[in-house]
Amino acid sequence: RCMNHYRTIWISDVHLGSLNCNATVLLDFLKYNNAEKIYLVGDIIDGWMLKKKWYWPQEHNDVIQKLLRKARNGASLIYIPGNHDEGVRQFVGLCFGEIYIKRDDIHMTLHGEKLWVTHGDQMDPVMFSSKWASKLGDFLYGIVTFASRIIHKMRQIIGYDYWSLSTYLKGKAKNAVRYVQRFERLMADEAQRKGHVGLVCGHIHQPAKKIIGGIQYYNTGDWVDSGSVLVEKNSGEIELVYWKIL
User: Fold this and answer.
1) Could you say which of 74, 81, 136, 196 has the lowest number of CB atoms within 10 Å?
2) Can you tell me whether residue 77 is helix, strand or coil?
């Protein structure tokens, strides 16, 4: 593989500290991809899981080290915390190890368009109802994701490609589809209210590149199921990149 150089990379929902984190795959992506600016769009570290049980293998530490090395080599790193790493929000406005902590940000594309960059949990309809409901949903999602990883390993043994149970269920369950659609609409409406042409978010682990009500909606996906990032090429084109889940 050759090295890819981008103008911007957006990464979110890595969930370091969780058994479901595909840190090895992310390390492979970081090995072959560089950018002038790298956004960490929330839930990079899974504080919710770490509070329950400490889990921090070497690969998870290597991801942090790899990102810091990119910053030392000249990349601009901006960390926008999410709900799973909300403890970092107390440090908004500060810089640690060459990583700038921000509540959200406005990214100016090569073509002069302003994109609102935010994790997205503030517009989550489930979190509107209660944090308890949100954590219950996260627990159930973790169970489905764990089952998905077991199924994938079994498929690997017999030579089949990666397939995600959780992604399949999200596409088939009517409630899940309505939840994603409502979240996307709320995010697009808020970006329009703020006067931006588009937005980049994460949170719902559903990679997307679409137009909603005239607003450019981008979701980075995650490193639990999809192994996806959003990139801005040097030509100014923005696209989703999927890295193979091992």
Assistant:
1) 74
2) strand
Token output for 82: 């999410």
Question: How does DSSP assign 17-52, residue by residue?
Answer: TSTT--HHHHHHHHHHEEEEEEEE-S-SB-HHHHHH
pLDDT tens-place string over residues 210-235: 999 999 999 999 999 889 999 999 99
CB-count exposure of residue 189 (10 Å: 0-12, 13-18, 19+): middle
How many whole angstroms from its chain centre is CA 65? 18
Given a contact cutoff of 8 angstroms between Cβ atoms, the answer to whether 210 and 203 are in contact is no
Helical H runs in 76-130? 125-129
pTM of the model: 0.82
Cα 115-120-121 angle, rounded to 5 deg = 165
Pairing of strands 215-219, 198-201: parallel
